[in-house]
Amino acid sequence: MWLRGKLYCLSVSGLNENYFELFALKQSFAIDIVALESQYRQIQSAAHPDRFVTASSAEKLKSMQLATLANEAYQTLKKPAARAKYLLSLNDIDATQETNTSMPADFLMQQMEWREALEDYKAAKDIDGLESLMKEMRQAATVLSNELSHLFDEKNDLTTATAATRKLIFIDKVCEDINKAIIQIED
Amino acid sequence: MALLQISEPGMSAAPHQHKLAVGIDLGTTNSLVATVRSGMSTVLQDEHGRSLLPSVVRYINDNEVIVGHQAQAKQSEDPINTIVSVKRFMGRGIKDIADKAHIPYRFVSNNASESPSQGMLQLDTRAGLKSPVEISAEILKALKVRAEKALGGELTGAVITVPAYFDDAQRQATKDAARLAGLHVLRLLNEPTAAAVAYGLDNAAEGVYVIYDLGGGTFDVSILRLSKGVFEVLATNGDSALGGDDFDHRIYCWILDQTREQTPNKQPLNEEDTRLLLTKARQAKEWLTDNDEAQITCKLSDGYAIDVVLSADTLVELTQNLVNKTLSPMRKAMRDAGLELSEIKGVVMVGGATRMPHVRHAVQDFFEQEPLTNLDPDKVVALGAAIQANVLAGNRSDDDLLLLDVTPLSLGLETMGGLVEKIIPRNSTLPVARAQDFTTFKDGQTAMSIHVLQGERDLVSACRSLARFELRGIPPMAAGAARIRVTFQVDADGLLSVSAREETKGIEASITVKPSYGLSEDQITAMLKSSFGAAEADKQARALAEAKVDAMSLISAINIALEQDGHLLSESEKDEINASVKSLEQTLNTEDSHAVHAATEALNETTENFAAKRMDASVSRALAGKKIDEVDLK
To answer: Pairing between strand B464-471 and B448-454?
Structure first.
């Protein structure tokens, strides 16, 4: 059964499809990355299709579903923006919903500045400029991540967390575009 | 009530039986087969002690095919019927082949519109039209014969390597070729990953490694993190149409330029001379790895004598831009992996073309460290594939080797305006599944055309088209009201399947498409039949034999599962499974392949719940960090 790009499988099981529970982690924004990685590897060691090459087709299918779920869950929890978005979705908030457009004016200004800088460097084929812009945005992302652990884990302020998550998603998107621009220039 | 028997930890309930599994490197220039014997991965040799099988297939007549050294020896004499570097044509159409004019084959496009391999190229030979899949199958058959002779039995299965940057069409074609050769494919494994396994296990390597794999026809770069037996691919990139052959081709063009300078009115070359000069070019390239000059002499069919000297410096001049073409994929892979150069612990060189000094220099300059060349670049892929085959076949019981590979290219769908909507991004860890919702464009629309694409560009025309299908039976609704969920699943072989369904009205209108580029099911069946010269009766006997083998392996898998995890089931559940096993066993005494098949399916269904419980239990054990059977009784 499929829902919104996420795989909900193992209907029979005692295993929960909650990503945090899947990896036996506490549900919070601050996360023990080392534990996440180690639990992910443990699950793949047990569930990966490579372990079921000679098994029955029912087991092969289960293995593929669980390995797929573990990959999706791991990728989601690993990245701060995806993790924040996922935490909100567990509270029935869709951070990327089109109606969810609230964004403070100062951040809108900042957004435009970043976008303009990106376009300028791109037009000038200035890789160093793009790299330094990326660095600046990564720093902003780190600040946001710290804010988010405070908002999620201490204050449980989901409204403010939603706004911060949207900022983080925006930064990721621009960083991706910077990467694309650099690759284009280098080619 | 009978007491359940519990075997000792680490002991398998079933008697240990070593399965014959091999790793096959199906290369552009050479192919190899390797296996694990007494814990050591070894390349299997032919009766003359040779490890490499030249990937050359010569059609003598309708019934006779020669593969390997003997075929290679005739490549200049009989170029049209002697196919070299067939891997470059796998999953490709004629328009994909850039330098047709200098390849001495008669290309034909498969235009049969009902054929799933429409648009794929074929070669016109003395034995008729041959697809790259069939030609590759001949190479695989030769390796299978070599392996079975060396190991003294029938193979259980094979891991076959493919370039990491192979797209879905090329992977599917490779799998089809293996089926045609009668090989059971345990897994398609990416070549750089296979090399990493061989290198990593041999050197107890830990940390981030780059595999630079420049083969005869393909270039791959993969970045992996090696940690306690887990090989995690962080990013991969490459060029599936760049390899040693292109270096040969540059030298060949240079030779032609030299002769034109001397004899401006030289007639164009025939196919024999083209192949002869390409061979001479390859020999000169190989010679220049350890020498400063190579003399190229030969006589063309019209008596024209070629005698030129190629210097190592000229070779660099001619081919430096080919070497530079490998830099862009390296940069992209590094960027996708999000790594700095200082984080790279080692760079492993794979593929015969990495013997060229200027290739090594370029890699050294890029990564600012000397590349690792202590493994034989021709053998390392096959050795790694054999290790993986041994694990997959179940010969190694300890669970300490795990490969986490990625999909090399993004997968998406065509949307409005000829644009591609990406569904699965490149470098996603396998297996991966994603679903995306689409809606109708017009009021009352009842069908939707779905076009599956692979590639990084935004325009449909710049990506590779994998499949087109129509979803019909959408209930008529206002534009934008329907919810069409398209699901992409890429399995551990890197192969894609796509399904679509309409969700709002709960109407099941779904279709599953497995893009196929090599051959259709029917074509494969027909070819298997003709190659065995089998009549209809033989075909049925074969179907029955296959069904029984499947049934028996299922029964054995379930018996082992019951012994290991029977405690997860209630008595009634166990009874149900046992009854189902019994029904299947009874069909084994009959000659009815359909009954065997149906009972196998029934048993599969009966055990679905058990499979889920076992999976949960095994994951719980993994998460608890220790096996349940290690808990001490107090």
So the answer is: antiparallel
Looking at this protein, which amino acid is placed at residue B618? Answer: S
Q: What is the CATH number of domain B522-623?
A: 1.20.1270.10
Q: Note whether B435 contacts A4, CB cutoff 8 Å.
A: yes
Q: Is the dihedral of CA B395, B399, B401, B405 positive or negative?
A: positive
Segments of chain B scoring below 70 in pLDDT: 1-17, 111-119, 397-399, 506-539, 542, 622-634
Tokens of B291: 């020498």
* φ and ψ of B485, to 5 deg: -100, 120
Please give the CATH topology (third level) of the domain spanning B244-324.
Actin; Chain A, domain 4 (3.90.640)
Check residues A1 and B441 and name the one with the higher pLDDT: B441
Contacts of B230 in chain A (CB under 8 A): 41, 44-45
> Looking at residue B605, what is its pLDDT?
87
pLDDT at A98: 61
Contacts of B404 in chain A (CB under 8 A): 44, 48
Contact A64 B491 (CB under 8 A): yes
Tokens 């760079």 — which residue? B347
In this predicted model, which residue has the larger pLDDT, A167 or B104?
A167
Q: Is B489 on the interface with A (CB under 8 A)?
A: yes
Looking at the complex, does the CB of residue B186 fall below 8 Å from at least one CB of chain A? yes
Nearest chain A Cα distance for residue B69, angstroms: 34
Q: What does the pLDDT read at residue A99? A: 60
Q: Quick count: other Cβ atoms within 10 Å of Cβ B446?
A: 16
Burial class (CB in 10 A: 0-12, 13-18, 19+), A12: middle
Percent of chain A scoring above 70 in pLDDT: 88
- Which one, of B232, B343, B345, B340, lies nearest residue A78 by Cα? B232
Task: Please give the positions of B annotated as active site.
Answer: 25, 87, 191, 213
What residues pair up with B438 in beta bridges, in sequence order? Answer: B484
Supply B327's token pair: 């830099």
- Cα of A11 to nearest chain B Cα, Å: 9
**B591 to B541, B547, B555, B599: CA distances (angstroms):** 9, 10, 18, 13
Pinpoint the alpha helices (H) of B92-183: 132-151, 168-180
8 Å CB contact of B187 and A53: yes
pLDDT tens per residue across span A44-88:
988 899 988 888 888 888 899 999 999 999 999 999 999 999 999
Which pLDDT value is given to residue A152? Answer: 92
Flag whether the ipTM exceeds 0.90: no
Mutate to test the interface with B, among A15, A42, A57, A131 (most CBs of B within 10 A): A57
Prediction pTM value: 0.85
Domain B411-517 has CATH 3.50.50.60: no
A131 — contact with chain B (CB < 8 Å)? no
Across the interface, whether the CB atoms of A23 and B623 are under 8 A apart is answered yes
Q: In angstroms, rounded to a whole number, what is the distance separating the alpha carbons of residues B144 and B540?
A: 24
Among A7, A41, A47, select the one facing B619 at the smallest CB separation.
Answer: A47
At B508 the pLDDT is: 57
pLDDT, residue A29, reads 95
Is A82 part of the contact surface with chain B (CB cutoff 8 Å)?
A: no
At B125 the pLDDT is: 92
* pLDDT reported for residue A134: 92
Name the phi and psi angles at B507, rounded to 5. Answer: -90, 125
Q: Which residue has the tokens 């492993």?
A: B348
3-class secondary-structure state, position B322: helix
pLDDT at A15: 43
Let me know how long chain A is.
187
Domain spans of chain B, in order of start: 1-199+375-402, 244-324, 411-517, 522-623
For strand B305-311 and strand B411-415, is the pairing parallel, antiparallel, or unpaired? Answer: unpaired
pLDDT of residue A11: 32
CATH number of the domain located at residue range(s) B1-199+375-402 in this protein = 3.30.420.40
Strand partners, B350: B213
Nearest CA in chain A to B19: A54
